Amino acid sequence: MQEITLTKGQHKYYGPIVTKLNQLKGKIKSIHLDAIRNKLPHSFILESVKRDVYENKVYKSLPAIYRKEIDGYYWGMGDFMFMSQLEWVLYYDGQYIGNSKRHSEATNKMYNQENFDNYKVEGFHVYIGTENKY
Question: What local confidence, expressed as pLDDT, does residue 76 receive?
Answer without folding.
Answer: 95
